[in-house]
Every structure is written in C-alpha cells, then in structure tokens.
Amino acid sequence: MSLQVVSAVSNSSLLQPGFSLLNFDGHVFFFGQKGWPKRSCPTGVFLLDIKQNELKMKPAAFSKDSCYLPPLRYPALCTLRGNAESDECQYIIHGGKTPNNDLSDKIYVMSLVSKTSKKTTFQCVEKDLGGDVPEPRYGHTINIVYSRGKSISVIFGGRSYTPLAQRTTEKWNSVVDCLPSVFLVDFEFGCCTSYVLPELQDGLSFHVSVARNDTVYILGGHSLQNNTRSPSLYKIKVDLPLGSPAMTCSILPGGISVSSAIVTQTGDTEFVLVGGYQSENQKRLVCNTIVLEDNKIEIVERASPDWTPDIKHCRTWFGCDMGKGSVLLGIPGANKQLISDANYFYILRCKGTEENKEEELAAQICSQASTEDPGDSTPFEDSEEFCFSAEANSFNLDDNDTYNEDDEEDESETGYWITCCASCNIDINTWVPFYSMELNKPAMILCSSGAGHWVHAQCMDLSETMLLRLSEASVKYFCNEHVDLDKGLQTPKKAVYLKKQPMKPLRKKTTMKLSTPTKKSFLRRLFE
What we know:
By secondary structure, the chain is mainly beta. The protein folds into two domains: 2-354, Kelch-type beta propeller (Neuraminidase); 439-477, Double Stranded RNA Binding Domain (2-Layer Sandwich). 7% of the residues lie in helices and 34% in strands. The protein has five helices and 35 strands. It has helices at residues 309-313, 411-414, 464-472, 483-489, 516-527, and strands at 2-8, 20-24, 27-31, 45-51, 54-59, 61-62, 76-81, 89-94, 107-115, 120-127, 130-131, 141-147, 150-156, 159-161, 175-177, 181-186, 191-196, 208-212, 215-219, 222-223, 228-229, 233-239, 246-252, 262-265, 270-274, 277-279, 282-283, 287-292, 297-302, 318-323, 326-332, 343-349, 364-367, 444-447, 453-456. The protein has an eight-stranded mixed β-sheet, with no helix packed on it. β26 and β27 (282-283) form a beta hairpin. The longest helix has 12 residues, at 516-527. The radius of gyration is 35 Å and the shape is elongated. The relative contact order is 0.13. Mean pLDDT is 78; it is low at 357-364, 369-401 and 405-414. InterPro entries: Gal_Oxase/kelch_b-propeller (IPR011043), Kelch-typ_b-propeller (IPR015915), RAG2 (IPR004321), RAG2_PHD (IPR025162), Znf_FYVE_PHD (IPR011011). Keywords: Chromatin regulator, DNA recombination, Metal-binding, Nucleus, Zinc, Zinc-finger. One of its GO terms (molecular function) is sequence-specific DNA binding.
C-alpha cells in the first residue's frame, strides 16, 4: 500500500466535505457542492482531472430532456446495470442535503449521453415513486441486488430531521436516526415496499454496505440514539420470485465497530476497508481485507500503509473509494494554509503497481463515507466526509478547458449572497425561495444610486407584483436606504408660469348734463 500527496489547483474551496463522485468509463465526475452552482457550471457536475499530482475540474452539461438536479450532499449512490455482467451503467442518487439544508426524498438516474475531449453531456431523470416511499434522509446506503434475472434496489439507514410534532424551538433542526426499516425500490414500476426485520433493532448511519448477487452485507455504522458504533455484521438476502419479493436477515460474527469507513475493490471478490472512526476520540488506522463469496464473507486484518505524521495527529479525516483499489483521503489544513477551508489530499493505493490495470467491478459497492454537520452528532461525526470513486491517472484533457475558480466572480462580495443592506437576512445556508420565479438563487434588483448596486428584492419588502412591474418597466429603482437621499439631492424643477395678458381697464361711465337751451339746440341739429 502506497500513499501519494495530491494538490488541488485553483479550486480548493469546491473540495469541501459532502461531495459525491460518479465513475463513468473510468472518468470521475464530481457533484454535490456545498453552495448553489455558479454560472460557469450551472449543472454543478464537474469532470475531475487528476494528473501530475494536481487536481483540476472541467464543467459538464446536461441534455435538454434532463430534469433539475440540486447539489445534494451526503446522498446514497450506487450503479445500476442491465444485468450483473453488463458493462454499461447508470448512477442512482437518492436523498441527501440541499444547500438550504433541506433533505431530499427524490431518486435520480444519471446516464452518460456523450463525451468528447471538449464536452461531456449527461441525462438526469427523476423517478416517480409510489407505495412506502422512504422519508427524506442522508448518510444512508443504496445497493442493487440481482435475483432470478431481475434487479431491485435496497435502501437502509440514514438520518432525518425530528418529526414536526416532536420539534421544539431549541432543537428545531436536530436530527435523529431513521427507523431500521429496509426498503425495496423497483425502478421498472416505481413501487416501494418497506420491511421490518427483527434482527435490525437500531437505526444506523454512515455505515458500509457491500452487495454481491442477491445479498447485501451491512458493516459498522453509528447510532445517534445509543451513541455507539455497531460491531454487528448483517447479511440481508433478497429473493425476487414472480410474486412479492422475500427478504431474510441474519447476524454474522466477525463484525467491526467502525463508522465512516471506506471500501475499495481490489479483485473480483476482494475488497479493502480503510479509515473511519472506532470511537468518539480515536480514528481507525487499521486496514482490513474483505473477501466475498457466494454465501459467506470473511474479514481479516492486513498491513496498514505508512501514515504520515499529519494524518496520524489530525483530529478528523475523510475520503472515499476512487475505484480499482485506490482511495482518496483528506485531512483539514487548519492554520497551515492561507485558505481557511483548504484541505490536504492523499491517494492511497491498495494494489501493487503491476495489478493497476483496467477491470470492471463485478460487485456493487455503496460506502457512505460521510459524517455529520457540526453540532449534529459526536465530535468525530463532525467531519462531513465526501466520496471519490474513480481511477486517478485516467485523464488526458486539454488544460485550456479546465474549470478555474479564479475566473468566477466572488459571490460572497458581488453575487447573490452579498449583504445588500444593514437589515439583510439572506443566508446561503438557510435561504428558501420567496417569490414564485425563484429557483436556487434570491431575486435581486439594481439600485440606481451612484454607480449602482444590487439588492435583494425580499430585503426591500417588494411584492411579487411590484417586482415584476419594475423588471418590465424602464424606470430607475432606488433601494430603501437611498430613496430618501436621492429625493434630497434632486434639484427642484423650475416652475413654468403662463404669461397672462393684462386685462384692459373698464372705462368709467360718465353722464353728460346739458342745460335746457343746449338740449333744444342738440335736438334741432339731430333732426335736421
């Protein structure tokens, strides 16, 4: 086993715990970022380019008939093949957290449409489900089992928010273990059926599940209710006859008390278990080999790699399977790096150099190597691990098309998540759509004061009708802080007065008094 350092180039802020990776034809695709996608990659899906010990990202696209896929963190993922020997596969994505910390209960199916050296296109379809639909959750697992020429998915474990009827003001967003029910989901008909097995007494999350043929093995996991890591090893066998499915569960000896462990496949029936935690204050530095056969499982300890001092002394670590016997491990950078959210990354190779060649995975692996958000669980469950699952040296792409985060505008200063005013309460982690036209970003409007600046329509107390009217009309808008100032700075318009013509004064009526002789003389002249 060898350990190799990998550096993230210009995009370390995207590599935060909670991501997932999809492996299509040996290429790794990254999705599930902590915030909402930016304009450079609206799908939130990136091709990971790892070469010469450097990691870069290239945006991927969705086809026109695809649905919207939010950037889910801590979902359950697995591959779906037409049959156990099929080469082509799709990815099943269930549950997870949105950037607003809402939990999802939806199931998406992602498939590769086309890939060139310049562009990769996916199709994402949301599946309609009926029956006993699993509640929204995260930190769970999903596997595909095959029986009698048919396939079905198995969902187990995870965490969810406390039911509304049991919430209090102090613990409104607290999480609890999901009930220890096992769900079978038929993707052909969209039917969900839940099973209560007496062997499964406590809810588990961040466990490891490995499936082969018609059997799922569940190993380890953490229980919030008991604050323990289960040492039990469960074997769930599924039978798919013509009628209703049948399911049995048995408890096997030889389990391991571990949570957030990582599994990678090194052979047709051989797997390696790496990482995780064995208690609240102790990482698990021991590695194990898991051998699966048709009806049994064997777990034995194996030689561990030469861990670096940074790995040995760090408080938390995270990572996931990269496929073909490789694991990507990460540890917090703490104060050793200039970027506060930067991490150190290592690639752990569990196979010999001569064994690193192309081979298809015959078994389905779903290793939920994730942990909890701060404050939700025990100290070591706070690391929020994310998953990588593909070959590291399988890329040869043009560097000019690589995603560079430095090319993006800093949304913390000029984007949608700015503090637009003194009373601004828009937070990327708690925001929910307020207007009907909003989807994953808050509506904003330009204030025309000075050089102009953007403000959130919701913070300005604008109604939806007024917002639409302002967006359609060619008028200037001034925010609440500048509307009065703008009025005070305006020069009053010069009043235009109408020029009125002076009225002619009325002539004074005069009365002429004539004497009697004069009257007679006047009348004589008038009638002559």
